[in-house]
Amino acid sequence: MLFLNPWLLLALAGVSIPVIIHLVRRQAAKPVEWGAMRFLMDTLSERRRRMEWEDLLLMAARCLLVALAALAVARPFVPPDSPTPWAFVLPALFAGIALFGGSFVLSSAKARLLARGAAIALLCVAAGMVWMEHWLNLRRFESGGNRDVAIVIDASTSMTRSSGSRSLFDKALEEARRIVKDAPRGTSFAVILGGPAPQALSNTPVSHRADVLAQLDGLVPLGGTFDANQALGMATLVLAEGQRPNKDIILLTDQQRHGWRFDNAGIWKSLEDAWKTLPAKPRLLLRSFPQPASLRNAGIVSLTSTHDLVGTDRPCTLRAEITNTGDQPVSPGQVDFEIDGKTTAHESIGLLAPGQTQVVETRHRFTKPGPHTVTARLASTDELRGDDRADLVVNVHRSVRVVLVDGNPSGGFFERAAGHTALALAPAASLVRGGQAGKDFLMDPQVIPAPELDADSLADADVVVLADVARLPAMMAANLADKVASGAGLIVIAGPRVDPSFYNAWDGPDGPLSPMVLDAETADDKGTSPASNTFRHESLAWAADPRRSDLGNAVIRRWRNAKLAPGESLLAAAFQNGAPFIVTRGYGRGRCVFATCAFDSRSGNLPARTAFVPMIHELTAWAAGGGVDWNIGAGQPASVALDSRSSGGLNARYSRREGERAKLLLERVDPSIHFTWGDESPGQKIPRDNFEVEWTATLLPQVSGEYLIEAEVDDQLIVRIADKTVLEQNEGEKSKPGRIRLEAGKPVAFRANYIENGGLAYARLYWTPPGGVRQPIPSSAWIPNSGGKAPSFTAIDPQGRTREVTVSNGRRGRELRVNGPPAPGLYQLQPPTDLRKTLGEGEGPLPLVVRSDIGESKLAPLTEEDLAQLRARTDVIQPQSLKDVLAVLSGKGFGREITRTVAMAALILLLLETALARWVSRSRRAGDELRVDFGDAAMEKGGLS
Amino acid sequence: MSSSPRLPDCMRLLPEETMGVMRRLEWLARRRMQGTLTGKHTSPDKGVSVEFAEHRPYAPGDDPRTLDWRVIARSDRHVVRQYIEETNLRATLAVDVSGSMAYTGNEAARLGDSPLSKLAYAKHLAAALAYLYIKQGDAAGLVTFDKQPLDFVRAASRPSQVRRILEVLDAAKPGADTDAAAVLHDVAERIPKRGVVFLISDLFDDPDKIVEALHHFDFRQHELVVFHVMAEEELGFPFSGYQQFRDLEKIVPTLRIDPQAVRAAYLERVSRFVRGIEAACGNLRADYVPVNTKTPLRQTLLRYLGRRMHAKRAR
Predict the structure, then answer these.
(1) In sequence order, which ranges of A417-539 are alpha helices (DSSP H)?
(2) B288, B225: one domain
(3) Which of residues B24, B54, B86 is at a domain's end?
(4) Strands A389-397 and A310-311
(5) Which of A607, A863, A899, B81 could serve as A420's disulfide partner, Cβ 3.0–4.6 Å?
(6) Does B59 touch chain A if contact means CB atoms closer than 8 Å?
(7) Which residues of chain A have pLDDT under 70?
(8) Residue A548: phi, psi to the nearest 5?
């Protein structure tokens, strides 16, 4: 038991007032010379005991009354988790006071001594317990004085729910305002808006309250899930910038469990460590705004399209999954589908029981290529509106450029490796070799014989089909691996001609490319057929039904043995003899499909199946389905990797030489210094001669040791690594390798300057890593410097506010990032025109969708175990009201105030004392009119007449 | 009645108030006398009466003129003639002068400026009665006592007896504690047969013992009149606030008490005491006269003596 005004406990000294009054009255006794002493004596001796008891009770009641009043004035309260039993302390205190006061009316000295002794003992016990409680408990609270306070406001979607007339967020905001206004002096505040990513409104705590209130004025809920750990981490960072010794974090939340991530103990441990570095461990005031108990809500779980590859040639299926997240049945009514803002379809949805999910689908044919937004809206009016809308960006391809590399170009059409495949993709043979398929035809195949393959052939391919191609040159293989990692698709038909050693060793940015370890070919006259029941892959699932596809009837007589590679390989189809048929894997942002038999007439009769054509289409579509995904998962940062190269490359500045000075013509990122321009110019606006190139980057070697740097150059190349000139090579000179010692994982600055005077132009840089062979420096070694101006532009976020978007060079290529917390919804990006062209078809704003998490709508509250976990990390206080919060900030502590109980007890005691006094006086019959009937009236009789 | 230019001090015991009462009574008696034969003694003269009652032995102090020479001559016995009036009225005034009688209180009747203590009141009362009897020609005697008899004045009917009684009364000072019972026994023995005894006291003693003593009086065939003198405060106990009660008789140690605490019980006790005395007097056919010192002296005298006059007439 503690006191809000502990100094007022001095009023307990007022207990002595009744005692003093009693003593003074006794002292003021006037002497009376009395004759009828014997009667007094007799009366006294008869009534003494009873009189003393009555007086004792009265005195005790009066002392107690004063004590209760004094206690009530000091405003006692029981702090939470108080160890001392106040139900014991209070009675001891009262008994002590009563005995002490009562001892003064006792007449026998022994009784007096006894009473006083007992009283003192009880009072000491009570005082001791109160002091101990004070020492143990109030130390939590009593750090008065200056403090930095971080106010973290939960701005997630669940806070937008209305409780009463206002939303929970508004209530939290209002309370934050009141806290700022009424907090004690010497407090400075930092406001942090909590959501999918926390948003700190200031970098350091602010002490000028008007500024903080101004910050609070503009706040609206962010939406999404409240990532508590990140928000608390940001609060900690901001608090660390503050100057004051005491730190507090006030968390205003609806205590929804989703987003706290208690299953990940590591992040909480690191938060705890961060708290330990602050000058004082911060107290966490968990102020909860609880959600109303029952929820009536239906929300959209996801909006997806069945095919990743959508073209303009056929409708695609869009499906929306609706679920009831509340505990009451709800009828959402209907789902409206909108494409690019225009409503196109309505699908009705029936009654959903709590927890029930229903899927609605609609089909739409996109007519224009480029990114399109699909929006699904729930028409229902339920309690949470934040989950009634879902968006999806569908990148509609004008065409999928499929380049088929024919490994067996000679021979008849149908014997060529790629013949059937190409035909399957395109309706007419004339379309092969670059003919136009038609405006709305999705697949745009082109067949290139393998010997004619060069670096540029694959440049703009969306899917590369290596049909029975033995091997590829190293550079091309590396580039193709990069391309796949960036989002292109690769289909390898491992026919008789392939060289397993090449494919098995084919490496790239995301590891080995092949999902299988290829082995030798097998031939079997009897042949084997694909097993329909193994068609579990999403692209082949349709073929599992023998009524729909006759793939199971195909007989394959020659196939290659293979084993699934460890890692992310997925067996899409197998033969009936158990050997794998088609294996897929995701690679970077692209996809690989490997088949173990050739799709030609010699291997079997697969191409003759009617299901062959759809199979090729589906496999190709699936392989092409990678690429830049403009839909970001819930809670992920709003950034999109535009490329997925193995590295960023080098910053290249192309300039024209004009006398002494150079005029900058072009800045770009080059994957590597391996150019053979010949007579051509390196790029637009750059002359064929008389230009310079400066490449800067950070070189990150993988192996430690001495590296040998060499170059083949026309006209001059100077290479500086770590500010040391390593190489200076001129055209025509013998190769003079430079040596440099590099450490693995330690980045060094790299600069190369190239000068072209005239004639041919080429620059090829090689290195020999320690224990390795001479090779062109791979792109994976370069990290472009992100210095210089990164292009930035604006975007409109789902709440309609402007955000800044930056495109920066990361390790793996360009990264587009929307600044600010990734609130779920549809963002409209407005890149400049030249950037827009590189990002997709069409013009106009680029949509970006951050998905929302339906878990936010489920409103599961924090459990006791969660709170226990929190308490294990730091001091968690759970104030129940604004008053409690302010009390904690003032260093006063709070708890269940029992002032009213004590005051009520004092009142009752007052009544009791009055009643007791009246009873005592009545029992003593001390009425004034009482007197002995002396028969004076008898004297009246017989008077003189 | 002698009057001189300078009154002796003891005469203050017969103030104008009392004398007024006496005169009135006299007037009333005269009025009555005109129509009756019996009742109050008629002869204004004191002295020899014609009716001879009996002889009694001579005691020193008797009037020599009452000696009956014939009997002396005949039988050599010194006898005194006793006349009817002499045999009828011999009043003895027994006045309690113990310490408890010294209580005054504020409510008591005043004579002059200051209130009368119970003792003063008793003295005035006794003085008036003595005067009355002697004026009538009856004999009056006095005994003052506290725990033992103090002064004794033998009954006599001479006019000078008044003076003697007054002097003794006046000189009496509050004494020690009361032991009325023992004294009363003693007085009962001493007083000659067949007189009237006026007991003026607060009777603050063990009530049972008092009652026993009263019985003794009855046994001796005395007519007993008990003037129970008490102060108003003793009857009402009107004290509020702590008081230090000091014993006037110096026996009980000082009591520092809250009077309100004991009032009811005290009054109860006193009431029982008074009832007891009253009942005992009733049983003994003694006359019980409660005298509250707040009642003015005049009123007390008038009421009692008037009543007695009626009662005597009725007898």
Answers:
(1) 419-425, 474-486, 500-505
(2) yes
(3) B86
(4) parallel
(5) A607
(6) no
(7) 1, 80-84, 137-145, 411, 413-415, 427-441, 626-627, 643-648, 780, 785-790, 809-813, 892-895, 924-928, 936-945
(8) -95, -30
CA end-to-end distance (rounded Å), chain B: 30
Inform me whether the C-beta atom of residue B7 falls under 8 Å from chain A C-beta atoms. Answer: no
Same domain flag for B207 and B247: yes
Q: What pLDDT sits at residue A938?
A: 46
pTM score: 0.57
Q: Is B26's Cβ below 8 Å from some Cβ in A? A: no
- Angle, vertex CA A354, rays to CA A353 and CA A359, nearest 5: 65
Q: How far apart are CA B112 and CA B127, in angstroms?
A: 18
Cβ of B243 and A32 within 8 Å?
A: yes
Q: Mark whether B213 and B235 lie in a shared domain.
A: yes
Does residue B205 fall inside a structural domain?
yes
Structure tokens at B77: 């016995």
* Cβ contacts of A941 on chain B, cutoff 8 Å: 307
Nearest to B96 by CA among B206, B199, B247, B215: B199
Tell me if chain B has a CB within 8 Å of the CB of A39.
yes
3-class secondary structure, A460: coil
- The two three-digit tokens of residue A779, written as one number: 């792109």
**Residue B259 located in a structural domain:** yes
Orientation of helix B118-136 relative to helix B297-314, angle to 10°: 40
Same domain assignment for residues B46 and B128: no
Q: Is A37 on the interface with B (CB under 8 A)?
A: yes
Residue A824 near residue A224, CB atoms below 8 Å: yes
Same-domain check for residues B304 and B265: yes
Of chain B residues 129-188, which have a CB less than 8 A from chain A?
A: none
Residue B164 has which token pair? 């003697």
Nearest CB neighbour to B102, from listed A35, A46, A945:
A35
Signed CA dihedral, A722, A724, A726, A727: sign only: positive
Give the C-alpha separation, A151 to A192, whole Å.
6
Whether B165 and B75 map to the same domain: the answer is no
Asked if residue B2 belongs to a domain, the reply is: no
Cα separation, A652 vs A750, whole angstroms: 12
Beta-carbon neighbour count of residue A751 at 10 Å?
18
User: How many domains are there within chain B?
Assistant: 2
pLDDT in tens, chain B (315 residues): 455 566 677 777 778 777 877 777 777 766 665 544 444 454 544 445 555 666 777 877 777 777 778 888 888 878 777 665 555 578 888 898 888 888 888 888 888 788 888 999 999 989 888 888 888 778 888 888 887 778 888 777 777 888 888 888 888 888 777 777 787 788 777 776 667 888 898 888 777 888 888 887 777 667 788 899 999 888 888 888 788 888 888 877 788 888 887 888 888 889 889 988 888 888 887 888 899 988 888 888 888 877 776 665 544
Q: Which residue of chain A has the CA closest to B98?
A: A35
What CATH number did the domain enclosing B225 receive? 3.40.50.410
B45/chain A closest Cα distance in angstroms: 26
Which residues from chain B sit within 8 angstroms of residue A945, using beta carbons?
306
Among B28, B261, B270, whose Cβ lies nearest the Cβ of A36? B270
Q: Angle formed by the axes of helices A109-141 and A86-102, to 10°?
A: 150
Same domain, B65 and B133: no
Structural domain range at position B152: 9-33+88-314
All residues of chain A having their beta carbon less than 8 Å from the beta carbon of residue B202 are 35-36
Q: Is B198 found in the same domain as B49? A: no
For the beta carbon of residue A515, count every other beta carbon within 10 angstroms: 26
Q: What is the side-by-side order of every strand in the sheet holding A580-587? A: A443-449, A400-406, A463-467, A489-493, A590-595, A580-587, A570-574
> B239 and chain A: CB distance < 8 Å anywhere?
yes
Neighbours of A926 (CB within 10 A): 20
The answer to whether the CB of A753 falls within 8 A of the CB of A725 is no
| ipTM associated with this complex | 0.77
